[in-house]
Amino acid sequence: MSGKRTTRLTPDQRREQLVGIGLEMLADRSLDELSTDEVARRAGISRGLLFHYFDSKRDFYRAVVRAACDRFTAATEPDGTLEPVAWMRAFISGFVVYVLEHRQVYLALVRGAAGSHPAVTDIVGATRETLARRVRDGQRRLGMPDAPRLELASRAWMAFAEEAVVNWPAEEPGAQDELCAFIESSFVSLLGLLDRPGVLTPR
Amino acid sequence: MSGKRTTRLTPDQRREQLVGIGLEMLADRSLDELSTDEVARRAGISRGLLFHYFDSKRDFYRAVVRAACDRFTAATEPDGTLEPVAWMRAFISGFVVYVLEHRQVYLALVRGAAGSHPAVTDIVGATRETLARRVRDGQRRLGMPDAPRLELASRAWMAFAEEAVVNWPAEEPGAQDELCAFIESSFVSLLGLLDRPGVLTPR
Q: What CATH number belongs to A2-60?
């Protein structure tokens, strides 16, 4: 299949094809296990030709991770004209659906964020920053109190939501609705308690 | 310094010394970066002698991570005779103080838990399971509602608490008390909302 197809794709289409193959392969392996030999083989081209489109293995990894992060960012961007509660729900369900559908890719990136793959730390970090900003945007839209620790709390809430979604039994009937409701509740209760710490008893 | 000291330590003391050096070194590097050559050098023994006490690099890594996990587990075990609120506070402040004081070791292990170091996944996993059981124990002691998702929620709460502690500005005056209060609030609000999802508006 390779010969003719190779000449028919434009450079942009070829790059897109290779990145797409990389994204598919991240579904069952970590970034470290992503072999450019295997990517080239699946595309029906030589490894040498792959490196005609990408400067290095690192460059290819970065392109794959950037594509995954762009999709994640797009999936979690609500229509800005929605009213606050609907906006927040759209953000949360976008987050839940993306992570459920791309659980393995998400884990591969979270692993990266935790420091195991320095080649993509900046891309993953910037994506997490975008998401954290969106959390704070939602919090402001809902009229919840601003607080000095809001940025930190937003990131901690994201860690909570990630862990919940990644481990949720998504195959059970109704599980996705229940998960979205749980994450919505946590958003309100966690970010809403910043101005009233110490709820167990007065300290 | 090495010669005499080598003969004076018992095998158990020597193993303890080497594990202690490994723990210290995890303060500024990941498990993958922990060089047994460097450990042996710091102990003033040969690399060969290190492997007299540990079967392999993997065996040494496991001993170091087991020691770190044992300390973490011990630091977060409250006196069982405390009344519920005091028990929960002791658990949370043990968690906060340990993670603040061993931030880098903790990150090195979290990285491990996220999948980057298969040699210790079982040890870190068992430790996280112990902690999650303790969260559920605290929740029962406080008389909070039991729920089908409690185990999952406990793990998500731990991810929240980890992220908050690791990023908290610990050097600010009063920051540690504020952090403990914040984590306590989150414990009550997150685990208390399992029986009332959907707090934004009725669904």
A: 1.10.10
* Whether the Cβ atoms of residue A165 and residue A98 lie closer than 8 Å to each other: no
pLDDT tens per residue across span B69-93 = 999 999 999 999 999 999 999 999 9
Q: Which of B159, B186, B197 sits opposite A181 (nearest CB)?
A: B197
Residue of B nearest to A184 (CA): B198
Considering only CB atoms, A185 lies closest to which of B163, B186, B198, namely: B198
Q: Chains A and B: how many Cβ contacts under 8 Å?
A: 126
- Does the interface predicted TM-score (ipTM) exceed 0.90? no
Are the folds of A2-60 and A65-192 the same? Answer: no
Task: Name the residue ranges covered by the structural domains of chain A.
Answer: 2-60, 65-192
CB nearest to B152's CB, from A149, A153, A164: A164
The architecture (CATH level 2) of B67-192 comes to Orthogonal Bundle (1.10)
Q: Considering CB atoms only, which of A115, A162, A199 is closest to B159?
A: A162
Tell me what pLDDT residue B201 has.
38
A65-192 architecture in CATH? Orthogonal Bundle (1.10)
Q: Answer whether residue B112 shows pLDDT above 60.
A: no
Mean pLDDT of chain B, nearest integer: 84
At residue A198, does pLDDT exceed 50?
no
pLDDT, average across residues A110-117: 55
With CB atoms and an 8 Å threshold, state whether A158 touches B156.
no
pLDDT at A3: 47
Chain A residues close to B85, C-beta within 8 Å: 200-201
The contact set of B with A (CB < 8 A) is 30, 85, 88-89, 107, 110-111, 114-116, 149, 152-153, 155-164, 167-168, 177-178, 181-182, 184-186, 188-190, 193-194, 196-201, 203
Q: Strand, coil or helix: what is A183?
A: helix
* Number of Cβ within a 10 Å radius of residue B108: 29
Task: Of A72-81, A113-122, A174-183, B12-21, give the lowest mean pLDDT range.
Answer: A113-122
Would you state the pLDDT for residue B121? 83
